[in-house]
Amino acid sequence: MFDQGRWLYAAGIQNEDGQVIGSMIVCDYPSRDELERLWLNHEPYVVDRVWERIDIHRAEVAQFAHK
Predict the structure, then answer these.
(1) In a structure prediction context, what are the per-residue pLDDT tens digits for the chain, which is 67 residues long?
(2) Which segments within 1-67 are labelled E, that is strand?
(3) CA–CA separation, 26 and 59 (whole Å)
(4) Which residues, 6+ apart, have CB-to-CB distance to 30 below 8 Å?
C-alpha cells in the first residue's frame, strides 16, 4: 500500500512507559467505500479479527506530507 501511495505513514502508539498500546495508519483513499473495498475487506488482521477495534476518521493531510 505504501508503494502505491495509499499509506502515507504509520506509527505505534505508546503509553507513558513506552509500551506499544496501539497503532495508526494515515492513508489516502477517495472514499470510505474504496478504503473498505480495496484494503480493509481483504486485510488479514481485519478478516481474522486480530485488531479488536478499528476507528476510521477523515482528515486533511498537509500538502508537504504528500509524495
Answers:
(1) 778 878 888 999 999 999 999 999 999 999 999 999 999 999 999 999 998 889 999 888 777 755 5
(2) 7-14, 20-27
(3) 9
(4) none
Distance between CA 67 and CA 57 in Å, rounded? 21
Nearest alpha-carbon partner for 59 in 23, 27, 22: 27
Q: What phi and psi values does residue 66 have, to the nearest 5 degrees?
A: -80, 150
Inter-CA distances, 45 with 13, 25, 53, Å: 17, 13, 11
CB atoms within 10 A of CB 24: 12
Q: Which residue has the cell 501511495?
A: 5
Q: What does the domain layout of the chain look like in residue ranges?
A: 7-56
